[in-house]
Design goal:
This is MBL fold metallo-hydrolase. The chain has 8 helices and 14 strands. The chain has 256 residues and is α/β, with parallel strands linked by helices. The strands form 2 sheets. The chain has a 7-stranded mixed beta sheet. The chain has a 7-stranded mixed beta sheet with strand order 7-8-9-10-11-12-13. The model has no long low-confidence stretch (mean pLDDT 97).
């Protein structure tokens, strides 16, 4: 194995189904339509990186039999990407040292303010995260992580490319437009996990046609759609998409 990808969650901020057992256009009898909030793990033989601490993190770790990580990266500070931070306490309990935790400067400062106890500790509780700046190129263990800032409404999110032994996994979620820097970053990826919220355009997220145009411009070997809402039925997407573009599903594991 050079790199492994684990899709912990591939749903939008409300998940699928939404509260109220609202499946929308998704078939409730298809298990791959049940989506928790977006998060992934990328790992090499020696390094395991968690991307985002979704509110569903505990359930995701249990479902995928994950009991430890080495590092965490946050793409940005929206609730569906960071509000599971407290579940990192259980990871800390095993190592007994703060987890190296990376984000872009503006997101890191926001996280430190909102979850100060996690970074600074408390009289009775130690800190669980060691906040670190995510640079445009950061070596994390034996994985090189390259970063590009993606427009996402009034903020930016971090688009990520993970490289190890000439293999690459890229992750682009929560963007509302595609820049040339993004195209340069993701071009030729072995696996490209990319936002495709729905088919109808959205002001801050990619819709399916935008995503397909983006994929065509960067030509990855395999693309996996993520951050999908209740309109994106798994089997219908499989029927209309080419074989090198697939909807992701919670628990999907790919090794390259």
């Amino acid at each position: 194995m050079s790199l492994k990808l684990i899709i912990l969650g591939c749903g939008t901020s409300s998940g699928v189904p939404r509260i109220g057992n609202d499946w929308g256009d998704c078939d409730p009898n298809e298990p791959k339509n049940r989506r928790t909030r977006v998060s992934i793990i990328v790992e090499s033989p020696t390094t395991r990186i968690l991307v985002d601490t979704s509110p569903d993190l505990r359930a995701q770790f249990l479902a995928c039999d994950i009991d430890a990580i080495d590092h965490v990266i946050w793409t940005h500070d929206h609730a569906d990407h960071c509000h599971g931070i407290d579940d990192l306490r259980q990871v800390f309990q095993q190592k007994r040292e703060p987890i190296p935790a990376y984000a872009r400067s503006f997101a890191l400062e926001s996280l430190k303010q909102r979850f100060a106890y996690a970074f600074e500790g408390h009289k009775y509780y130690p800190s669980i995260c060691d906040g670190r700046l995510l640079e445009t190129k950061t070596e994390i263990g034996d994985i090189v992580v390259k970063t590009v800032d993606q427009p996402h409404g009034g903020i930016t999110s971090a688009g990520l490319r993970f490289e190890h032994n000439e293999k690459s996994i890229s992750y682009a979620t929560d963007f509302g437009e595609v820049t040339e820097d993004m195209r340069k970053m993701f071009r030729g990826s072995d696996i490209f996990v990319v936002d495709a919220l729905r088919e109808k355009p959205h002001p801050t997220h990619a819709h399916l046609n935008m995503t397909r145009d983006f994929i065509d411009s960067v030509k990855p070997r395999l693309s996996l759609l993520t951050h999908m809402d209740k309109s994106m039925d798994y089997n219908r997407l499989c029927a209309i998409l080419p074989k090198d573009i697939q909807p992701a599903y919670d628990g999907l594991v790919i090794e390259i």
